[in-house]
């Protein structure tokens, strides 16, 4: 197993202050970069990941090192039932380190990277028993033109060339299916005006991001996961979320603001008529970003934004 460098590790540990007797859920445990540090502080950790391969690796490691990480396969969109099944309710902290890990990006068979040729898959849970049947390939080959446009525009934030790329996909479908990341990258490159082709990677990154979000319903799961996470925290427990693009960060920011308000009545109401009470206190007015040193040594940290809140 390759070494993994967790993003914003000191900051995460600073918010959680792990100690014996404390319980945490790492809802995106991956290769346990953060979870191991929580365990080293003496805490107990439930490590959840939707990728069954990474959970299997973690289980075999945990068995040999007898760490206190209890690793389970699951989607944080169902965090409440996963936590209840594993007796991890009323916890001191929940971490969500969103997106994909190096273990997924580096494996060409998973189809996440346009820099390595592989099948157009992109499912986080490709090897799980109940894995999603939607893949990047099924989207590229079968989605309606308007739906492709919508996801490239909304999830890829590709406003300039989205239409050209969708046009190229529709034309290519008439000749046969698009099966690999390499084929899709080449198609994206050829769809760009000549002077932009040397930077085709910038556009491909956005299109691949859009497909990954759609395949894994990443934004829907994030909304559901955040809601459920709050109900699993004890009073004073903390929720820490690290996101890597503006769509995720906006969801986290708006969720925290909503949950930190005592009243959710429309501004036009002269008096409050709702029973809403704030459930969270925001700990990060602005998102925490990686230090210059971390950003220099870990490219993934450059776009990371951490937001934290405490259960009231
Ligand atoms: C950035 S990595 C986590 C890295 C981890 N913090 C570490 O230090 O090793 C994100 C992980 O979240 C997992 N993941 C993505 N979406 C998920 C979801 N909805 N539920 C559970 N895990 C998810 C991915 O499979 C991946 O392993």
From TrEMBL:
Protein keywords: Cytoplasm, Methyltransferase, rRNA processing, S-adenosyl-L-methionine, Transferase
Location(s), subcellular: Cytoplasm
Keyword Heme applies: no
Alphabetized GO MF terms: rRNA (cytosine-N4-)-methyltransferase activity
SUPFAM superfamilies: Putative methyltransferase TM0872, insert domain, S-adenosyl-L-methionine-dependent methyltransferases
Chain residues that bind S-adenosyl-L-methionine: 32-34, 49, 76, 97, 104
Stretches for region Disordered: 293-312
HAMAP family noted in UniProt: 16SrRNA_methyltr_H
Protein name as it appears in the record: Ribosomal RNA small subunit methyltransferase H
Gene that specifies this protein: rsmH
